[in-house]
Amino acid sequence: MPRPRDRGILWPKPAVNPNRLSTPLASETEMPNTLRRRYRKKRARKSGLPPGALVGVGDALGPTQMTRTLWSGEALREDQVADLTDIGTPRPRDAVTWINVAHAHQAEVVRRLGEVYGLHPLVQEDILNHDQRPKVEDHGNCLFVVLKILGFNDEAHELTAEQLSLVLGPDYLLSFQEVEGGATLEPVRERLRAHHARTRQGRADQLAYAILDAVVDEYFVALEKLEDHVEDLENDLLSTSRAAALPIILQLKRQTLFLRHAVWPLREVVAELQRAGGTLVSDETRVYLRDLYDHVVQVMDMAEDLRETVAGLLDLYLSTLNLRLNEVMKVLTLFTAVFIPLTFCVGVYGMNFRHMPELDWWWAYPALWVLMVAVGGGMVAYFRHRRWL
Amino acid sequence: MPRPRDRGILWPKPAVNPNRLSTPLASETEMPNTLRRRYRKKRARKSGLPPGALVGVGDALGPTQMTRTLWSGEALREDQVADLTDIGTPRPRDAVTWINVAHAHQAEVVRRLGEVYGLHPLVQEDILNHDQRPKVEDHGNCLFVVLKILGFNDEAHELTAEQLSLVLGPDYLLSFQEVEGGATLEPVRERLRAHHARTRQGRADQLAYAILDAVVDEYFVALEKLEDHVEDLENDLLSTSRAAALPIILQLKRQTLFLRHAVWPLREVVAELQRAGGTLVSDETRVYLRDLYDHVVQVMDMAEDLRETVAGLLDLYLSTLNLRLNEVMKVLTLFTAVFIPLTFCVGVYGMNFRHMPELDWWWAYPALWVLMVAVGGGMVAYFRHRRWL
Amino acid sequence: MPRPRDRGILWPKPAVNPNRLSTPLASETEMPNTLRRRYRKKRARKSGLPPGALVGVGDALGPTQMTRTLWSGEALREDQVADLTDIGTPRPRDAVTWINVAHAHQAEVVRRLGEVYGLHPLVQEDILNHDQRPKVEDHGNCLFVVLKILGFNDEAHELTAEQLSLVLGPDYLLSFQEVEGGATLEPVRERLRAHHARTRQGRADQLAYAILDAVVDEYFVALEKLEDHVEDLENDLLSTSRAAALPIILQLKRQTLFLRHAVWPLREVVAELQRAGGTLVSDETRVYLRDLYDHVVQVMDMAEDLRETVAGLLDLYLSTLNLRLNEVMKVLTLFTAVFIPLTFCVGVYGMNFRHMPELDWWWAYPALWVLMVAVGGGMVAYFRHRRWL
Amino acid sequence: MPRPRDRGILWPKPAVNPNRLSTPLASETEMPNTLRRRYRKKRARKSGLPPGALVGVGDALGPTQMTRTLWSGEALREDQVADLTDIGTPRPRDAVTWINVAHAHQAEVVRRLGEVYGLHPLVQEDILNHDQRPKVEDHGNCLFVVLKILGFNDEAHELTAEQLSLVLGPDYLLSFQEVEGGATLEPVRERLRAHHARTRQGRADQLAYAILDAVVDEYFVALEKLEDHVEDLENDLLSTSRAAALPIILQLKRQTLFLRHAVWPLREVVAELQRAGGTLVSDETRVYLRDLYDHVVQVMDMAEDLRETVAGLLDLYLSTLNLRLNEVMKVLTLFTAVFIPLTFCVGVYGMNFRHMPELDWWWAYPALWVLMVAVGGGMVAYFRHRRWL
Amino acid sequence: MPRPRDRGILWPKPAVNPNRLSTPLASETEMPNTLRRRYRKKRARKSGLPPGALVGVGDALGPTQMTRTLWSGEALREDQVADLTDIGTPRPRDAVTWINVAHAHQAEVVRRLGEVYGLHPLVQEDILNHDQRPKVEDHGNCLFVVLKILGFNDEAHELTAEQLSLVLGPDYLLSFQEVEGGATLEPVRERLRAHHARTRQGRADQLAYAILDAVVDEYFVALEKLEDHVEDLENDLLSTSRAAALPIILQLKRQTLFLRHAVWPLREVVAELQRAGGTLVSDETRVYLRDLYDHVVQVMDMAEDLRETVAGLLDLYLSTLNLRLNEVMKVLTLFTAVFIPLTFCVGVYGMNFRHMPELDWWWAYPALWVLMVAVGGGMVAYFRHRRWL
């Protein structure tokens, strides 16, 4: 029977995406800078509590949803878990169980799953704390993996990140998503429904690998979109002087900093998974993990290239700005320089000396015009000759 | 019976916080730059003395205060130690003793504890020397841990640091604070008083872990405040040109340098604690230390991000300053450029040639005004067209 | 009998080189920037597919061509494989087989070879995915090597890259080229045809070494051409101010980034080949691999030098631009400074005071000219003396 | 009987300190730059000689002085060794011998000690060559340690360095100072004279540790003084624009480069001493060496901070210079901009048109003054409003 | 009997030094840039050839000269080898043979020595290819060492480099110089002629060490000269603005890049020699190699310092250039600012208003002069007061 607390699972999903890292392209003063604010609040809320205290500290306020998939040979059953007491029912022998928890921020759900599957209190705490670095921990009876699902918000031109925690046991896999990872896990679920897919024929470790592979594939998509964004900005900087580029560049710098913390530990995670796991990871799966490792290294290469490109953007911006300003100043200075001697000329014949013979010559005035045009034209020609203009 | 020297324990606490790293936001010439001065004085006082000489070299001038907590099963006793001879009383079997020394700068107190608990002379020296790098030393019968408690002075916008030394034995924990660490250790003490807390049920190593965890939690708070400060400064730099930003940036650079020395060795300390300790650290606690290790790595990530951000602040400051100056210079140069040809025009008709037909035309003067307005307006339009204005 | 699908092998080769990394020297806005676009499309096409899915993701649209070479002692036979079923024919004992696949983007060809030679599905996938990092994998029965063939497009002044995959078995070598590697493998084939060549006398590992050696030799040629290009650009920057240099420098930066990803893993590949391979690599060949390793390290040195030189190009460009602009501004400012006091002089005698005795002196006007020439000449002389001019 | 050569020991000490690294604060052209010159001369003198050739290559021209200290239990004897033959006298059993050689540049002295104590020819060469990197060598029967004693010349504001070589045997310690290390070793000698000092109770290894500790303590003093100097310079740069700062900054850069070579290998030396030494270093001393290791790491931190601060000085200098210049230029340009339209106004009424009605109005002249004051004042007000002034 | 080819050995030595790296101090456009050109040609010539093909690719066109030295106990014989067949004569038992080949670019000579001493084809190829990185290879029966002899061309102010290859066998040493290393090996030969020299008493490994030591000693000389050159340039940059400095700085950067490739692998070479060699290197020699290792580390320190100094030269150059230009601009702007209000003043009294009472006052004109002198002087005084002048 569902307890009152469980009804909270049906709370409506908030309209705004709470995982937006920040809002680039907006003015800096109004920039919500969500990445840092979110990070900060979480930690501040936790400080002073004993370690292992189960407090949901994520901002993901959508309704917690649990999906359970069981398969064994030909049979496969999928259902939504609405009642927490339902989890503890004995599993059929030889079957593999996958429980996916979306919007995993309710301490009660995690505690119940922890009881059933024997999870260490610290693992339960880490699942609820959505601010973990990617890592893998070997707890003997299970492997605990934390990683980030990266996305790219096409409108705000920014990376989005949500946490995915996996608990891999001998015949079960628990996955906890910070929000509902949407498209990322769907292909895996599709493949599982197909009879002859390799994912279906393997055990829980093959499923874990399939999820990791799907997540890393998403990295390529997100990073390629970010690359596009950076490249567009680069072209903008080369063609026009955008005064508003400075906050965007700062924002990109923060994103690459964040990227580094999300991607670099991932390599260690996959390498660790290959080594660790005892009987939890089969040799067959290890070959696939080696392939995944190669992909992660490629993602790191992309992230590193992005970091270098973004680091060069500020230099590029200031250079082009300088070039443009210099051009303006040079043209104006040349313009002034042409008029300076001409003004001197007309000044000379504005003098009131009594004895200035030129003043009485009738052709003096037109001659002076000719002279001045010649001087002005000569200077322009000289400047052109020296390639100053 | 308290000896006269022990009365010194009751000296009043000084009004100013002696641990302020420095005073940012003040003008550089008056900046006390406390971090370096303090560092320097300490060392200068020690030079030439034999190693192991017990001299209190901290600036913490508050009264030394000792708090003793004993617990065993259900029973728990807390008291203030006023008499040094009192320390040596035999401890009840199976009880765990925690002696916390605040304002640990009196050589006599440390020497007495050293005698009772058999501390190596170098350990005693290091406890009194409040300028240690974080480190852990395995002395066989005990583990000696040094670390820094970080805080953030909200008024002076600066990090504060005090040293915390722990000596972990089989059934005792000695902790020495440079000043009275205030809020940091209070939650640990609270949890100890609760009957069923894990900290209470464990041995001395659980208590040591709880203290380390509380200290690292404080790091998050302090670093998040520093991040806020840096971010505010960044926004200031983007919106207005603050000439006074240079000393603040220098000050922040020093703080990040200090941070590196405080945080980086901490990772080694926690890793070492996991490996070392023999029977002093139980396997149960080791699992918790692994969790602490993750936290420390996160702190390092934050500190590293801060370092990179602060390193970019000077570039940012100079860039915005340059942008703003360039804007001023460009406007003024354009302004000048508009008047230069006009001044030439009026100069022409200021000439005294006898034969200047224009001078006699009655419409020449208004026509010249029309011409000049046209030239001036045309130039402004051209500048706007070229996006120079 | 050739099946219909195989006729696709005869598709005409595209006129444009699909492996061009990018088009430098063109304006940035129109720059196709092929490297990134290509990279992106590939990955986007793959995302969501199960690992090991065989989809040709290269852009190399030329007809797939298979060349088979068998030799054993004196005998050597070369032929084009037109029928896929032909591959499975039993190989003569003691003979070494080399199958080279050019334009390796047809999944069917790779799958058939995979069946005959027992290749792991992930190896088959990697062969078709032309976006791998250089790597070596030991699959027990065979070694799988991926590397890049570098070239230099003399017209577009840019590096070209194609992927080469090698599968080294006990008595066979399979090589898969992204396009037809043209001149790179031809010398190896020539040497194989010669009776007494060392390559001919060895087994498959000697052939693999010969191919690797030929590829690395091509690196030297490509990098030396790129070095020439960079040096020409450097000389251009020193002699004239090319406003168009900025996009070219950006382009070169991207090429050096790419180079790093192509060259750095290569060292690991060759070192791994020396260590791994069990009986697949003979001791004799290992000595040659050590020599190859030295060559790769030299290539890395060249690539690293290039990277540093290119990194310095932007500084160099901005410096020379600044120097030149400064020269212009200085000359113009000096020019203006000379005329400023002269204009003041003529202004003085343009005043209309009734009592200005100088105005009535007949020699005042020529005297003023003498004075002005003296002042102007004196200033120029002073500027020259101060080395400002 | 003292041989004639030994009389050289009594040569007077030169007035100038030969160990000054360089003379900052002087103009660059006259800077003696002693560090590099000295370094160079030494090496040039040695080139071409066989390895192990004993040639005194130091510049330390003071008289070589040998001090011998023997102690055993209660007894302690100190004397000056005036005769080289005196060294070979048999040492009392159980006694520890310490021979300190100041101004160690006479080959004869080193050769004689080498014979008596069985030193390898290369050790003898290294003792005489005062240009060694800090290092430790285990020669089985003895440990050979080289390190630098750092000082700070308060007048010239520069680091001074002299070499100290130690040879640690089972019951003897030989120490060779480049010059007379003055205050550095005196505290050690004092402690040795005290009956109950730990240094006195230990063997030769305790003495070696005491000397190393005294040397590292001196590092703190020297580095703190250099830090003061750098900080003073930083404050100077922030408050005034010192044109002479460039050579001083260059000089400081060289000092930090030198510092790195003096300090970084030191860590290896102390770590090596802890590991090596067999029976030469007792376990008791090893504990103390661990403490010394911590000190060396702190010195490295200080040196690293100094390096970063000095590296930032040039940026700081150029920034403040730029800020100041920009301020000047801006004020002047604004000043000019105010007068430009005023000059245009007066130019207008300097024209000689016959039909200029304003010229005849009697109030036109004062009205123009009012207008011009209004325009000028308005512009200044506008500039202030825009915060340009 | 000398064959015709051997007569080539007597070809005259070319007048120009073919090892000059480049010609600094010349204008960039005419800079031969020998280092890169040479490097490139060599490799281009080799590409496409099978590995191990013996082609002389050096530019060293002097006559190949072979010198043979045999010694055994008291006896020592030196002669020039004019006939290649002469090499194969059986060597006396217990004798050590040293064959030195200068201008080692004739394939025939290397092939013959290879046959006699059993050298691997790749070793023979490497000896002829004068573009190797420093390395050591253990071929079981012999050690193959490649290193660079560095020199400094005092006229062209540039490093010169030639390759030296050593083959160390149990009782022989073969040395191949790219050109005739002149002064470098002469001291070794001299010492060999002396009866009691350690080099003479040792075996071939002592000779190899003596040669390595002589080569590294030359490094000190070359680097010290380069340091002098850099320091002279630094002083030049501080005192005058040399527009020609840019190509020289670029040239120095290339030299430091080259230096890194020549010096850094050397450390590995010497460390490898200490470890490797089995019976080829005696324990006695290993002690000397450790000393050599220290020297190499010192050379690396020097090279690293040079690199940092040269890297800072461009900044220094631009800074001083900027300072000087700023000074000029500031003076001129101040100069202009003084005249601007004066020109306004004379403009005022150039107006033609009928009612300007001042025009009629007889003392107005001199009073205006007094006013203008006062204003001008006041401004100069103000600028001086503000320290702008």
Summarize the structure.
Five copies of one chain form a homopentamer. The first copy, chain A, contains ten helices and seven strands.
Written account of the structure:
- The structure is a homopentamer of 389-residue chains.
- With 389 residues, chain A is α+β, with helices and mostly antiparallel strands.
- The first copy, chain A, folds into two domains: 4-320, Beta Polymerase, domain 2; 326-385, Magnesium transport protein CorA, transmembrane region (Methane Monooxygenase Hydroxylase, Chain G, domain 1).
- The first copy, chain A, has helices spanning 4-7, 34-46, 107-117, 121-128, 186-193, 198-201, 204-239, 245-275, 283-348, 364-385, and strands at 65-72, 75-81, 96-102, 135-138, 143-153, 158-168, 172-177.
- A seven-stranded mixed β-sheet of chain A has the order 2-1-3-7-6-5-4.
- In chain A, α8 runs antiparallel to α9.
- The longest helix of chain A is centred in the C-terminal third of the chain and has 66 residues, at 283-348.
- Mean pLDDT of chain A is 78; it is low at 1-42.
- Chains in contact: A-B, A-C, B-D, C-E, D-E.
- At the B-D interface, α2, α8, α9 and α10 of B face α7 and α9 of D.
Helices and strands of chain A, in order, run as HHEEEHHEEEEHHHHHH
CATH architecture assignment name of the largest domain in chain A: 2-Layer Sandwich
Q: Would you count the extended β strands of chain A for me?
A: 7
- Helix-strand makeup class of chain A: alpha+beta
Multimeric status of the protein: homopentamer
Query: What is the assigned CATH homologous superfamily of the largest domain in chain A?
Result: CorA soluble domain-like
Strand proportion of chain A, as a percent range, falls in 5-15%
- Apparent shape of chain A: rod-shaped
Helix fraction bin of chain A: 40-55%
What's the rounded overall pLDDT mean of chain A? 78
Question: Tell me, what is the CATH class of the largest domain in chain A?
Answer: Alpha Beta
Strand order across the largest sheet of chain A = 2-1-3-7-6-5-4
- Say what the CATH topology of the largest domain in chain A is: Beta Polymerase, domain 2
What is Rg of chain A? 33 Å
Q: Count of DSSP helices of chain A?
A: 10
- Count of domain modules of chain A: 2
Query: How many strands, which pairing sense, and closed or not: the largest β-sheet of chain A?
Result: 7 strands, mixed
Report how far apart the termini of chain A are: 85 Å
Q: Unreliable stretches of chain A, pLDDT < 50, 5 or more residues?
A: 1-42
Biggest protein-protein contact in the assembly: B-D, 60 and 60 residues
